[in-house]
Amino acid sequence: MYHVEINQERFRNHIQYDWWKYIAGILATVFLWSLMTAITRPRTPDDKKLDIFLVGDYVLDEPIETISNNILQDFPNLLEVNIDSIPIGGDSGMDYAGRQKLMVMMGSQTGDIYVFDKVEFEKFAIQGAFLPLDDFIEQNKDLIDLDNLEKHKREIREGEEESEAHYYGVPMDAVKIFDNTGYNSADKVLGITAFSRNQSSAFDVLKWILNNGSN
To answer: What residues have CB less than 8 Å from 57, skipping those under 6 apart?
Structure first.
């Protein structure tokens, strides 16, 4: 019978090169458990909640919860505001798990507001994942970093039909509201998803973020 000898050196080499697989597996298990819990728990009506995803950096739970509570306090029509992070970048295991979560969220059309690195944002914007923000920007120019705004103007084509260029993202460089959470807003872009089930509140909260974040 073929026998594989497992010794300390072989085990150490295995862990050294394959450790990220274990971390990715643990993260995937935790994420799937969280997803199943979210699916089975009583649901808040779509017009009473808002889901915000911060993509790219880790965040600290306590300051994020404070921001959620502040939004709830200022918007009594909302019963639930969820701010979640999707870490991508860094080591291969963490990046893989984060991108898997991002694909699941986008694929299931979950979320109202996303904050992305501008390169990642563009990948989704050209696929039509975000709403045009032209009217919002025109009405709130005093809250927006106009110097960086042109970077986020994109033309989305459907088939061979011609289409006008629109603004799909708002630059977050000057927004400081997430500074104490661990999330770096530099070179980040905020957009409202085309599949948002609470677009009215999403626009209101976007204005709240820009207004409070500049203080």
So the answer is: 85, 87, 182, 183, 184
What single-letter amino acid sits at 12?
R
Against a cut of 0.85, is the pTM above it?
A: no
Q: What is the DSSP letter of 112?
A: S
What tokens does 171 get?
Answer: 């630059």
Three-class DSSP category at 175: coil
3-state percent breakdown (helix, strand, coil) of the chain, nearest 5: 50, 15, 35
Q: Please state, as a whole number, how many other Cβ atoms lie within 10 Å of the Cβ of residue 194.
A: 16
Collapsed DSSP state (helix, strand, coil) of residue 190? strand
What is the model's pLDDT at position 95?
Answer: 80
What span, in angstroms and rounded, lies between the C-alpha atoms of 93 and 27? 9
CA 125 – CA 168 distance, rounded (Å): 7
Using one digit for the tens of pLDDT, what is the confidence trace for 171-180? 998 898 998 8
| Residue partners of 54: CB distance under 8 A and separation at least 6 | 83, 84, 85, 86, 115, 178, 181, 183
pLDDT at residue number 118: 85
CA–CA gap between residue 46 and residue 147 (Å, rounded): 35
- Give the pLDDT confidence of 52-78 residue by residue, as tens digits: 999 988 889 999 999 999 999 999 999
DSSP-derived letter for residue 80 is E
